[in-house]
Amino acid sequence: MFSSPYLPHAIYAIALTSISIHLVNQRRTSEEDKSRVNAQISILESVRDQLRSDKPLSNDELARLKKLASAPLPEEEKPHIRWSDIFMGRKPVVGKESDVSEWDKRDMETLKKEL
User: Fold this and answer.
1) Which of 81, 80, 73, 69 is nearest to 43 (CA)?
2) What is the number of other CB atoms lying within 10 angstroms of the CB of residue 64?
3) In this predicted model, what pLDDT tens digit does every residue of 13-57 receive, in sequence order?
4) What whole-number distance in Å separates Cα of residue 42 and Cα of residue 48?
5) Rounded to a whole number, what is the largest CA-CA distance in the chain?
6) At a CB cut-off of 8 Å and minimum separation 6, what does 111 contact?
7) How far apart are the first and last CA of the chain?
């Protein structure tokens, strides 16, 4: 068996490094979640203030603010993008054709016409 006077120190260093990386990742994740929640709260407060005021809120603006305030997609629903797709220039398949809104379809058609 390999025995060295430095073996316990190496094990301690690896364990300490692993724990510190894990804690930094947890801190960053919690900060992202906190900022996301604060952003959602501020968007919803602005919607509330606009609804209480005399100035009417358009349906497009309300839909845009709802989309901004909605929770992000869970990891399993996000499209998986591989490095080969990036280097080959292929675009990932986001979802079904029916998932694309009418506005997005119109934008794509106008872009195709321009090109």
Assistant:
1) 69
2) 12
3) 999 999 999 999 999 999 988 998 898 888 888 888 888 888 777
4) 10
5) 81
6) none
7) 69
Residue where the block lists tokens 């709802």: 66
Q: Give me 97's structure tokens.
A: 């054709």
Cα Rg of the chain, angstroms:
24
89: left (phi over 0), alpha (psi -120 to 50) or beta: left
Token pair belonging to 6: 């430095």
As a whole number of angstroms, the distance between CA 97 and CA 102 comes to 11
Which residue, 67, 6, 75, 58, is CA-closest to 40?
A: 67
Q: And the tokens for 38?
A: 């604060």
Instruction: Enter the pTM of the model.
Output: 0.49
Do 50 and 72 contact (CB within 8 A), yes or no? no
